[in-house]
Amino acid sequence: MKLTAWIPVVVLMGAVGGIIALYNRMVRLRIRCDESWASIDAQLKRRADLIPNLVETVKGYAAHEKGLFEEVTNARAKAIAGGSVQERAEAEGLLSGALRSLFAVAEAYPELKANTNFLQLQESLSKIEDDIQMARRYYNAVVRDYNAAIETFPGNLFAGVFGFTPRHYFEVAEADRGPVEVKF
Fold first, then answer.
1. Residue by residue, what is the 3-state secondary structure of 42-76?
2. Which of 82, 76, 81, 78 is nearest to 48 (CA)?
3. How far apart are alpha carbons 24 and 27 in whole angstroms?
4. I need a surface site. Which of 23, 32, 147, 178 has the fewest CB within 10 A?
């Protein structure tokens, strides 16, 4: 067989190999997206588990702030309910805002601020918030890489065929970026 007869075979094998490599890269990125979302979810669960203890501690000192406690409880329930990444980000933004309000109210009670249990809960929540922020950054970086892989050439030619769809970033809602207003 002549050398020219092998050229189409080699080109075809190269193209198939390239498609396989591209597919495997997109699968690895999709798995990293799922893994990084699971990490965020675990941190959010830790925060949700801590919130009832925090609310109960503050309740003992600020019993007349019933509306705030209900707001925190409702925001926690929405955050736990889940949903898409966008829905979850919105719910978590509401919960973060409610928690900021709770801590702002706690500032008005010096004996609460000095309570060891409250301080430990506040410190734990602060650490969890830092962990959530790190997990969110990692998730968004992985989503960026994944979306770039499926939206750039040659990935965009095959992504739809193989069922790869863009993911949404885990972003804080615009309304939750501002300062918390607390009225007494």
1. HHHHHHHHHHHHHHHHHHHHCCCCHHHHHHHHHHH
2. 76
3. 5
4. 178
Burial class (CB in 10 A: 0-12, 13-18, 19+), 136: buried
Query: Tokens 């430990």 belong to which residue?
Result: 120
Q: How far is CA 19 from the centre of its chain?
A: 31
| Total number of residues shown for the chain | 184
- Provide the b/e sequence for 10-31 (b: ≥16 CB within 10 Å): eeeeeeeeeeeebbeebeebbe
**Tens-place pLDDT, residues 35-89:** 999 999 999 999 999 999 888 888 888 777 778 888 898 999 989 887 888 888 8
What residue type is assigned to position 9 of the chain? V
In the chain the domains, ranked by start, together with CATH numbers, are 3-176 (1.20.1440.20)
> What pTM, to 2 d.p., does this model score?
0.81
Enclosing H/E stretch for 121: helix 116-151
Distance between alpha carbon 113 and the CA centroid of its chain, in Å?
30
Got the DSSP string for 75-101?
HHHHHHH--SHHHHHHHHHHHHHHHHH
